[in-house]
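Incident log, structure service

09:12 report received: a user says their structure output differs between two submissions of the same chain.
09:20 pulled the input from the user's history:
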Amino acid sequence: MSTSPLKLALAAAFVLALTFTFSCSGDDSSNTPTPPRKEKISGVSQKGPFNAATVKIYRLDASKKKIGDSVEVKTDGEGKFEIEIEEAQYISIEVTGDYANEAKGGQSEIPITLYAVADVSNKDNANVNINVFTHLEYERVLESTKAFDVAKREAQNKVLGALGMGEINVNSEALSLFGSGQDNAKLLTASVLLQANRETGAVSNLLRKIKDDGDFKNELLEGAEWVKTHISTVEQNIKNLNPNAQVPSVNDINNIVAGINGSSSSGGSSSSSEPLSCTGLPSRWIMNIPIDLPTLLCSNGSSASDVTWRSTLNWSNPELGTYDVGVAANCGNNVSLTASCGTLSVLPPGSLTCDIQSQLNTVCPGVTQNYWKTAIKWNTAPPTGPESTTQDACYYITSFTSLNRADSYIVNGKSYKDYKTQADIDDDVGKLDGGYYIYITAGNYIWLSIEGAVLGTKPACAN
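09:34 re-ran on a clean worker, output below:
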C-alpha cells in the first residue's frame, strides 16, 4: 500500500519537532550555573596555642579587598582548625580567643586577636598558620601597593629585623611554635619574649607598638631579661605544652638582644660599622663550668652562618689558661668575614670573685646542674637537723664555727664530708664574696649541723 504525500509531510514535521525539542532541552542544561570551586584551608593558631577560639576567614581579590562575608570555624585545644571556602587568590584570617601562656604557664587573662594574610591561589589544600609574625606583618602587606609576594617578603623582613632575628627561609604562615628547625625556633623565641611576665593586655599593646613602628625597644629588652632569669620556668611551661619543643636558651636570647641593640626601634638595619661583630665574651671565667658562646651580629641584618671559632678554648669544659678568641663566619652574601671576640682568662674555682659570680648569674660555686637556679636560698638560714626536701639548696652565710654532715656538701666550690671548722675552710679555699656558699643535695633526710652560723645577705654583685 502506497503512502500519501500528506502522511509523509506530517511524519517529517513530527520528527523535526522532536529534534527541536531535544535540542532546546540540551541548551537549557548547559546554562545551569556551575557550583563554585572549593578549597580546604587548615592551620594552627598560636600566641601560645589558642583553645576553642573563633577563626574568621575572608576571601580577598587581586587588590587585597574583602569579597563577601567571612566563614567561621572553632579551633581545637591545640589551636588547629580546618574549613572549606570558595576558591580565592588571597585570604585574610583572624583568630580571637584565649591562649595557653607559653612563658608563665596557665591561660591568658582576656581574649586576644591575631591576624594573617596569605596567597592560596591554585591550591586545593592550603596550610595557613596564625602567629605573632603573621600578625605583625599583616597591615604592612595589605597597605602595600607592591605585588603581593614582594610586599609579603618586605613586611616579613622588617618585622624580623625589628625583633633582632635576621631572616627566615619560609613565609611566616608556614611556621609553628613547636616545629623543627631554626625558623620555627625563632618564632617560639619571639613569642616567649613578647609574652615574658606581661599580662595579656600588655602583650596586645606591645604588638600594637611594633606594628605602628613605635618605641618598643626597651620593652623587648626587659622581656629578654625576664626570660633569661626565669629560663627554667619557661622551659618547663613550654615542655608542658609540647615535650618536643625547641626551648630557647640563654644564648639564643643573648643573640636576639644583640640584634635588638643593633637595630633601630622600627626594625632598621644594624648600626654597627663592622660587617661582623662579636660581643658577650667575659674577661674571666671559672674552669669546668660551661661558657655560653659569644653573640655574633651581622651589620646587614642576616644571621651569621658557617661559624668557625678561632681558639683552643673548650666551651663546654674550659681549662685553666688565657685564650684569645676570634671567629670566622658568613653574613648572607658576605662570606669569610672575621672578628675578634676578646681575651678570656680561665681561673681555678677559688678565684670566684664578685665580677665572675655576677656573670655566672648567681650560680652556686662548684655546682653545674641545670636546675641550680631553683636551689638559691641566699637569705634563708640553712637547716641544723633532719629535713626532707625535693631539691638541692644553696645557702650563703658570713661565718660559722663548724660544719658536720655524713654525706658530702660543697663549700665555696669544693666538696667536703663529715666535720670541718671555719678555720679548715679558710685554710683550704678561703672566703668568697666575704662569706661561704654552702650547697647540700636533696633527699628524705638532709642533716647538716652548722654551729654558730651567721646568716648573710646575698652580695649585690651576685645579681
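09:41 both user submissions now match this output. Likely a transient worker issue. Closing.
09:42 reviewer note: The chain has ten helices and 21 strands. The first helix runs from residue 5 to 30.
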